[in-house]
Amino acid sequence: MAPKREQRYTILVADDSEMNRSILRSMLEESYDIVEAEDGLQAVAILQQMEQEIALVLLDLVMPNMDGFDVLSAMNKYNWIDSVPVIMISAESTHDFIERAYNMGVTDYISRPFDMMVVRRRVINTIMLYAKQRRLAGMVNEQIYQREKVNNLMISILSHIVEFRNEESGLHVLHIQTMTEILLKSLTRKTDKYQLDRETINLIGNASTLHDVGKIGIPTEILNKPGRFTEEEFAIMKQHSQMGAEMMKSVPDQDEPLVKYAYEICRWHHERYDGRGYPDGLKGEEIPISAQVVALADVYDALTSPRVYKPAHPHEKAMSMILNGECGAFQPLLLECLVESSDIIQQEMSIDPSLQGDLRAAENTAAEVVQYEDLSTVDRSLHMLEYERAKYRFFMSVTQAILFEYIDDPPMLTLSSAGVQRLGLAESIVNPYSNEKVLNTMGAESLAKLARLLRSSTIDNPVVEFDCDMCVDGQSKPVHIISRAMWSADEPPQYTGAIGRITELDEKEAVR
Predict the structure, then answer these.
(1) For site-directed labelling of 260, which of 122, 180, 195, 299 has its Cα 20 to 30 A away?
(2) What average pLDDT does range 313-340 have in this prediction?
(3) Residue 143 falls within a domain, yes or no?
(4) E-assigned strand segments in 47-151
(5) CB 27, CB 119: distance < 8 Å
(6) What is the pLDDT, as a whole number, of residue 143?
(7) Cβ within 8 Å of residue 465, ≥6 positions away
């Protein structure tokens, strides 16, 4: 058996003096991988790309473009300082400078000229301390993540039993859960009337998968009848809402919120806002918000999914039917949420259902682990998971194309390998708006217009489509750019950049 390879940590040395970088590299390169930055802007750009790989930053104070304090400000802004320790290196040793550095999160301070023994010992101590902290955070994250997966799996098994008996694929319950959570999150941005925090939205989303559990008690010949129901058959079919509610009433731990929401949803997800639903003819706000949202999600998915008695309607047709009142009455505020979330709903419904459980578990893990205040990497983990999840959704919907990512602060453009090859640009470009090659490839006017469109998008409608001419494969060609603006979790949300793809338009598409 081969001996276990010792882990090599990566250190970022940020210093505008080549001689100082060379001295530090010679002291440390035997045991560590060294990445160098010639100024503060380059240091932040490297952290933007490699934050998860950097174990330590050795940071000079006086540098061009951005000095050491500017770098620390950026690290605090993006919460990198929580997971990446910084040792300040400088000949400046005044009390005010040192105190300011410590107040901004610096772990240690080494003055020049360097003492090799001191540098090595402080580097080792700092890296080992943070490595233990990361391992602890990872253990907690993994435990919560596995618990979330088990919870989701158990609910999914039960709900899929119903779908299997109903001769459906099982996608229905996943779609209902996804759409329920989208609508609830949109609702929280419009009103605080329903007190919908993250945990409540998660519980209602899980409970929504049980909305049709009462169909277990409906005869198969009625459940899977391809044609229209007779009045007697429809009366039997409608009993599933009461049957499901009775099942929930017999569940132990009636005080648990999940059981409460499951009861509400099972019994009242066929009620309508004007009182014309069943089984109890509830009207308006008599219907719990959990049941109102699931009712709307249920109707949308029923319209857009194939059934034994009908083909699937396209998204636009389903939206039109719901908004025109052809499927019953719904709360006007929820209909606003449906319209504003239209693009997100389409994107989410296209994601491979086998991946949705893992994505949801990751999101819930990140949100729950934030309560562990003694873990300094927690906040950064939450932001990273939210950011990566948004990127993951979007890139899952694109195929073979030129892909790009833009970070707004500091401004940096990153291209996929296809983009590098076909556009003739570098993989990472700092300050792309002033980069001559970028401007020659796309044109300053087109680049500025795309930037304006992205900045004028919203968190609910972040997708921007744009046509222009670009230099692709050495020739000017018409292209179509589809991109998604990225927004922070701040209140109000802040524009942080964009991701997207670039595809060529054929001559017909260009003329049209």
Answers:
(1) 299
(2) 94
(3) no
(4) 54-60, 86-90, 108-111
(5) yes
(6) 58
(7) 480, 481, 482, 483
